[in-house]
Amino acid sequence: MGSASDIPVIEKGVKVLDELGIPYEVAIASAHRTPRDVEGYAVNASKRGIMVIIAAAGLSAALPGVVAAATNLPVIGIPVKGGALDGLDALLSVTQMPPGVPVGSVGLNASLNACLMAARIIAINDREISERLEAWTKERASAVAESRSKLA
User: Fold this and answer.
1) 141 near 134, Cβ under 8 Å?
2) Residue 65 contacts residue 79 (beta carbons within 8 Å)
3) Cα separation of 94 and 90, whole Å?
4) Domains of the chain
């Protein structure tokens, strides 16, 4: 994430990673204030066993793009609400990447969806994660059905 102020945004997402038993790292690095740290983190991520990088950033939200430029790992950007445009600038920055520098994007502050997308990517080659993810999804579907029955 770009700064400590983004921590509340990622909490819901990392909770699901914990529930699914997927190990993760949380780091703070700014594309504008610590660009060398960002590049070093991205370049060395695969050597540490990282399979997907999720980058949360607000305002100009350069972090996901800078990370994607430095690695061939999948990068998922979380645009963070805030600033004069209430996150619209971050959303556009994350989604409007130049050709050859792909960043997957989720909605504003949508760390849960970012982490679920990362889990799905990892599950492609990991049967255990795939089974846990399927069970997690079924539990959520059951909860919706249960809440519907309470209305009747």
Assistant:
1) no
2) no
3) 6
4) 4-151 (3.40.50.1970)
pLDDT digits (tens, 9 = 90+) for 99-133: 999 999 999 999 999 999 999 999 999 999 999 99
Pair 75, 64: CB distance under 8 Å: yes
3-class SS letters over the chain: CCCHHHHHHHHHHHHHHHHHCCCCCCCCCCCCCCHHHHHHHHHHCHHHCCCCEEEEEECCCCHHHHHHHHCCCCEEEEEECCCCCCCHHHHHHHHCCCCCCCCEECCCCCHHHHHHHHHHHHHCCCHHHHHHHHHHHHHHHHHHHHHHHHHC
Output the six-digit token pair for 51: 């399979």
Crossing angle between the packed helical segments 35-44 and 63-70, to the nearest 10 degrees: 50
Find, among 14, 7, 22, 18, the residue nearest to 126 by Cα.
22
In Å, what is the CA distance from 75 to each residue of 10, 47, 116, 140, 143? 15, 16, 13, 26, 31
With 0.90 as the threshold, say if the pTM is over it. yes
Residue 114 tokens read as 């970012």
**β 104-105/75-80 pair status:** parallel
